[in-house]
């Protein structure tokens, strides 16, 4: 948009000054982020959502990239805000290691382009075995307040699992 020079400014009239200020205020502006995505850690099979929002004139278009390429997959859903100021990138179900990456939100309009990156870390699913479990051996380790490490043995389908595990609601999880 062309901004007038307001040649009549030497004649101090409130109407002319107000008109010039309104025309200057209507100038195009580059994108500026108002909300940026934050790094997340999810579990395989779960969901991750990233939010990105920007202002500018004309209103910036938001695009999501993974490893430099626009996201496109049935598991990747881009949900635009009703007012068009931003969007949510939703990934479901999460897969490890292929979803673990740097994601980028790009906001662009005719005046400029900006981007911000965020990291998604995907942990493998926690496997749990319900039922009876028994301690294999208890090992005391040095640390503040006498930390205790327990080693368990579990027999599942003719396979033994031995290692450091956690107990959740009576089930052995690894």
Question: How are the SSEs placed, and which strands pair?
Answer:
Blueprint: H1 14-25, E1 29-35, E2 40-43, E3 48-57, E4 61-66, E5 69-70, E6 76-80, E7 86-91, E8 101-108, E9 113-123, E10 128-129, E11 134-140, E12 148-156, E13 159-164, E14 166-168, E15 171-173
Parallel strand pairs: 2-9
Antiparallel strand pairs: 1-3, 3-7, 4-5, 4-8, 6-7, 8-9, 10-15, 11-12, 12-13, 14-15
Structure overview:
With 174 residues, the chain is mainly beta. The chain has two domains: 29-123, Immunoglobulin-like, CATH 2.60.40; 128-173, no CATH class. 7% of the residues lie in helices and 51% in strands. The protein has one helix and 15 strands. It has a five-stranded mixed sheet, with no helix packed on it. A four-stranded antiparallel sheet has the order 1-3-7-6, with no helix packed on it. It has a three-stranded antiparallel sheet with strand order 10-15-14, with no helix packed on it. The protein is elongated. This is Receptor-type tyrosine-protein phosphatase delta-like. Residues 31-121 form the Ig-like domain. Residues 1-27 form the signal peptide.
């Amino acid at each position: 948009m062309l901004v007038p020079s307001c040649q009549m400014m030497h004649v101090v009239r409130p109407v002319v000054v107000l008109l010039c200020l309104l025309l200057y205020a209507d100038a195009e502006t580059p994108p500026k982020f108002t909300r940026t995505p934050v790094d997340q850690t999810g579990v395989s099979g779960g969901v991750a959502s990233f939010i990105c929002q920007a202002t500018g004139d004309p209103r910036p278009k938001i695009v999501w990239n993974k490893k430099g390429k626009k996201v496109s997959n049935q598991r990747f859903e881009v949900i635009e805000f009703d007012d068009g100021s931003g969007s949510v990138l939703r990934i479901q179900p999460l897969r490890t290691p292929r979803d673990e990456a740097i994601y980028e939100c790009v906001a662009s309009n005719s005046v400029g382009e900006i981007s911000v990156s965020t990291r998604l870390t995907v942990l493998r699913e926690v496997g749990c075995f319900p039922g009876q479990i028994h301690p294999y051996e208890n090992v005391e380790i040095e640390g503040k307040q006498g930390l205790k490490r327990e080693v368990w043995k579990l027999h599942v389908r003719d396979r033994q699992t031995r290692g450091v595990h956690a107990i959740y609601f009576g089930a052995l999880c690894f």
